[in-house]
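User: Okay, second chain of the day. Same drill as before: sequence in, structure tokens out.
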Amino acid sequence: MNGLKVLFKKELREQLKTYKMLIVGIAFVFFGISTPLLLAYLPQIIEFSGQGADMPINMPDPTPLMSMQEFGQTMIQVGVLICILITMGTISGEKEKGTAMLTLSKPVSRGAFVMSKYLALGMLVFVSMLLSAGLCYAYTLMLIGDFAFIPFLGSTLLLTLFLLLCLAVTLFFSSFFKSSLAAGGTALVLLIAQGLATQLPWIGKYLPGNLSSWSAQLLSGSGEPAWGALVVAVVIIGLCLYFARIRLEQKEL
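Assistant: Same drill. Structure tokens below.
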């Protein structure tokens, strides 16, 4: 892939220049910290607001497992939206502004063009996710209680893989459509559809949406691993990047 290193550095500089790196990092950190904080202080918040004055609200004491599960559910929802938003215009936006044609007129391959964008975005999401998870774990230990580190790490890595899948799917549609909104909307609909399709017999257990279920099961120590869904997710990532390159080669910029 000619020019991959140069284009990758260019993408990182662009993330810094547009504050994308800072904004995404802050968003992930916010949800990582707010989850255990909200669980730990929710009774006090309700009492302070006066909502439980007329009718007392009995709430169970927060547990570390609740904190970890809430974090996972939050990131699988908010994280997916963030990934779509930061990716949907990466190729379609450059094609619209003409910067893609300018970049590809230099001695760089289309494969390097696609891969540099994915690697830069993937690194941003990976680091942000690990930072967010680390803060969530630390605040949970301080405010709620102890929790085994290895299951939480495994759960976080599975969620991160699913977010990397979201990046790849959105990047493919960004290469396919001229409109960033069309790319993001199509990716969102497809990701929601495959999540619903996990309930189908036989084929459902191989869909990447099962990674979130496996992630939750790792925390509770129950259920069976979804290795098939993991392999399918990795294959889909590779196929999306491959066909994004093919699309750029076939279509006039």
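The first helix runs from residue 4 to 17.

User: Thanks, on to the next one.
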